Amino acid sequence: MKLADKAKVAATEMVATKALNYLEKDPETNIPKLMELVDKYMPKDYYVQQRNAIRSAIADKDNNWYKLILRMYELDPGAREAFFPEFYHQCQPEGNRDIKGLCKGTQLQCAVSDPA
């Protein structure tokens, strides 16, 4: 891996860690705030459908996906610390090039069970 690629990966992991630490403080309040930051700083055409789906899920407190997100905060903190970075890494096109079926072009194909 080139030095520039390593720097990009390190910076991305640092931002993800900071975001997760921010969410830990108060997930119900900070999830929508973090989504606003993502929308503000990401290119407008970057994962539009996925961001719309997330925005829709977190806007409705009775949405099963929102409930699933909050249930992650019921996990043991050590388990959550291990789960989130790996989940984040594998759900990035750069992180899953070697995992068949997860990423097709630029469309993320992550399978998550519906909590309902």
Helix content: 55-70%
Largest sheet, in brief, is:
2 strands, antiparallel
Number of helices: 5
Query: What is the structural class?
Result: mainly alpha
Helix-strand sequence: HHHHHEE
Characterize the overall form: globular
Give a verbal description of the structure.
With 116 residues, the protein is mainly alpha-helical. The protein contains five helices and two strands; from the N terminus they run H-H-H-H-H-E-E. It has helices spanning 3-25, 27-41, 48-59, 64-71, 77-90, and strands at residues 103-104, 107-108. It has a two-stranded antiparallel sheet with strand order 1-2. A hairpin with a 2-residue loop joins strand 1 and strand 2. Helix 1 runs antiparallel to helix 2 (27-41). The longest helix is centred in the first third of the chain and has 23 residues, at 3-25. It is globular, with a radius of gyration of 15 Å. It starts with a helix and ends in an 8-residue tail after the last strand.
Layout of helices and strands, plus pairs?
Blueprint: H1 3-25, H2 27-41, H3 48-59, H4 64-71, H5 77-90, E1 103-104, E2 107-108
Supply database-style keywords.
116 residues, 5 helices, 2 strands
Summarize the structure.
The chain has helices spanning 3-25, 27-41, 48-59, 64-71, 77-90; strands spanning 103-104, 107-108. With 116 residues, it is mainly alpha-helical. Helix 1 runs antiparallel to helix 2 and helix 1 (3-25) crosses helix 5 (77-90).
